[in-house]
C-alpha cells in the first residue's frame, strides 16, 4: 500500500477530493455517514417528499423529469417514483457515447416493464471528441461533455415540456464533502451545484472560447446541450431540481436487490474491479470507466475499488483488513485506455506527461511498472476510432 | 481567527480571461463573468482580476467587465492593471471592486498609494510588485514585466508599507505559469519586511505549493494555473490546506 | 420592497446585487421623504463615522430613520451602517449616532499579530438566537473589513461575536433593528441567507 494518510475507518486517502480528517483520523465523509444513519429524521424527510409530490403532480406535461442513465441509481429512482408514488415521468437520457451492451439491455427492459416515455439524446460525436481532448488537456478529466450534459440537458427538457419537478438520485453527501448530512441539508441539483462540482469549473461559454479557433471554428449552438439553462427560464416554470436521496436514505445494496428482483436489472464486471465487491453494478454504464479510474489512480493513488469498499465499510458490510489486499491490486492499466487514446489521438507518453503534471500531492505514481488489467467480455463490441495517425499528420 | 485565503487570479484581455507563462504565450481560459459565477459557487475566498492589456483605450471595456463581474461576485475582489490616478481607483471601486492592485504606478508615482489609502482606506489599496531574480538578487519590474527598474526590492516593500498599502501582492515573473512552486525565498524576504498581509503569486502548480507559500510567510496564496490547468477547485484546495494545519473558511451552502 | 439608503458613503451596488441575485426587490433610495414607503431598510456604508453622520444630517435622513425604527419596521445596518446605530462614535472627535442600539464605536487596538484594519474571513459565533439566523450554520465565516468596533455597555444587544485577538462584536440587534459588522453581501451563501432572512422578517422577535 502506498504511504498516503488514510481515514482510520474507511481507508480513503488524503488525495480524495474534499476529504478532511478529524483529530481521531476519521474523515468527514464517515462522520457525515454516521449522522445520516443516526441523526437524520428520515420519517420527516419522507413527509417532505410527500408534500413535494402533492405540490407538483399534474402540473405540467409530465409529473416529473427523471434524468436516467440506466445505471443502478437512476433505475431505482425511476422504479421508486413510478411504483411508490405512481408518478408519470418523462425519462431523459443524455447519452455520453460509451454505453455498454448490458446497460442498453437493462434500459430497454426497465422502460418496457415500467412503461414510461423516454427521450434519448446523443450529442454530436465530432463535438464530443473535441471537448474530450480539451477537458483532458486542461483538467486530466475527459468527461466534461458527460458531466455537463447529464446535469444540464434534462433541465432544458424540463423547460420544453413545462415540467418543473426534476428528480435526481444519489446525493453527493454520500461520496464527498461538497454537501453533507451534518446540517439537515436538502441537496438541490441547481446551478450552484453544477458550477461547484459538476462541470469541472468550465462552463459551456468558457468551452466555446477555448475550442473555437480560427483554424478550427465551431458553431456556438454545438455547445447548447452542455449549457445550464438561464435561471429566469427555470424560475418561469417554477423548477424544483432535487436528489431523491435527500428524502429517502440512499443505499444501493438493498436498492440493487429491488431492481434486480422487480425489473430483472443485471450487473456487469468493471475493468480493474473485483466482481465480489461490485455485485450491485456500480458504473457499468460507461465502457471508458476503467480508463477514467486509471487516470484517477495515476493522479491520486486510489481507484473505485477503494471508493466502493469505503462505502461498504461505512455501512458495516466490509472490513478494512479485507480491503488492504484489494488496495494492493489497484491501478492496473485497463484495456479501455487504448480506446480512449485512439479517440484523443494521443500516444501514451504524452498522456502520461499530462497526467503527471497534475498529480495530487503527496501521491507519486510509479510509471515504470505497468500491470495490465483484464478485458471485460464486451471489449470487442466497443466503438473504435483511431485518431492518432490523423493527429500525427 | 482570520482564515488563510486561497485566491484565484484571473487575467483579463479584451474582456476574456487568458493565462500565459512568464508573462507571455497567452491562452484563452474563458469568460470572466461565467468564471466568477463558478468561483462563487465554489466559495472561493477572494478573486483578483488583472488587466494585462491595461491601455487607456481599453479602460471602458475593463470597467464594463468589472460591472458585470460584480453582479456575480458575492465575495471580495480586487482589480489591477493600468491604474494611474485616484480617478481610476474611484471608477473601479464604483464598478464594484473592493480593492485595487497598483503595480507600475506604485513605482512611478508612489504617492498614489498614500492618496488612495487616505481617500478610500488602506484596506482598498494593494501594492503589487513584479519581481525577477537576476544575478542572485531580486529586481522590481513594471509594465507587466517589460520594464526593469533600479529599485531595491526590500526598500520598495517598506516604502509601500509606510505609504499605507493594506496588502502586498508579490508576483514572481520567473515562476509565472510554470507550475513548479512559488519563489519561497522571495516570499520570505517580503513577509519579513512588512507587517501587512502578503499575497504570494507566481508558480503554484499544486496544493502543496500553496501550503509552502504559507509556511514561507504568505497570508494568502494566489494562483491561476492551478485552477485553470489541473484537476483542482477551491473546495479541494481548502480541504488540503486545512489538512496541512492552516485555518480555512467554513462555508454555508 | 427593500430600500437601500444612499447617503454618499461607499458602494451600494453590491448590496443591491446580492438582493437581486436571490430575487428580492430592492431599490436605492436617497430621498428622506420616501423612506417610510419601504417594508425594509438597509443602511450600508464604508468610511468614517463622523462624516457619515454629517451626510445623514445634510440629507435630512436622521429623523425619518429614527421614526422608521420607532415604528418597529425592520432595519439593517451593515458595517459602518451598523456602527451608526450606536449612541456615539469616537473617530476624529466625538459624534452622536442614530442611538438605536446602546453602545459606542471606538478604534480597534493595532497589535502586531492583529493589524488594523481587521480584513478577511472570520467566523461568526452566534451568541444569541435571532430570526435572521434561520438556517444559518454554526461557525460559518463572514467577510469583515473595519478599523473601528462597536462596544456595548452590556451583552443584551449582542447577537454575534468574532475573535480577532480579543472578542469583537460582529452582530447586534434590538427590537426591529439588526446590525452586521461584516459584509453579508460579500459573504457568499451564508451572507445571502442572512439577507434573505432579514427580507422575510417582520421586525418582531
The total beta strand count of chain B reads 12
Show the largest interface. A-B, 38 and 31 residues
What class, by secondary structure content of chain A? Answer: mainly alpha
Rough outline of chain B: globular
Average per-residue pLDDT of chain A, rounded, comes to 96
Tell me the structural class of chain B.
alpha/beta
Major sheet of chain A:
3 strands, parallel
In terms of DSSP E residues, the strand content of chain A is 5-15%
Kindly estimate the percentage of residues of chain B that lie in beta strands according to DSSP. Answer: 25-35%
How would a crystallographer describe the biggest sheet of chain B?
8 strands, parallel, barrel
Features:
heterotrimer, A: mainly alpha, three-stranded parallel sheet, two-stranded parallel ribbon, C: 205 residues, alpha/beta, four-stranded mixed sheet, 5 helices, globular
What does this 3D model show about the protein?
The complex is a heterotrimer of chains A (393), B (253) and C (205). Chain A is mostly helical. Chain A is 45% helix and 6% strand. In chain A, the strands form two sheets. In chain A, strands 1-2-3 form a three-stranded parallel beta sheet. In chain A, helix 3 packs across helix 10. Chain A is globular. The N and C termini of chain A lie far apart (42 Å). The model of chain A has no long low-confidence stretch (mean pLDDT 96). Chain B has 253 residues and is of the alpha/beta class. Chain B has helices at residues 32-41, 59-70, 86-94, 104-108, 111-120, 153-163, 184-193, 207-215, 225-228, 234-243, and strands at 5-13, 16-21, 24-30, 47-51, 77-80, 99-102, 125-134, 137-142, 147-152, 167-172, 198-201, 220-223. In chain B, strands 1-4-5-6-7-10-11-12 form an eight-stranded parallel β-barrel, surrounded by seven helices. Chain B is globular, with a radius of gyration of 16 Å. Chain C is α/β, with parallel strands linked by helices and 205 residues long. In chain C, 21% of the residues lie in helices and 31% in strands. Chain C contains five helices and 14 strands. The two termini of chain C are 21 Å apart. Classes of the chains: A mainly alpha (393), B alpha/beta (253), C alpha/beta (205). Chains in contact: A-B, A-C, B-C. Chain A binds chain C through residues 183, 192, 235, and chain C through 23, 137, 189.
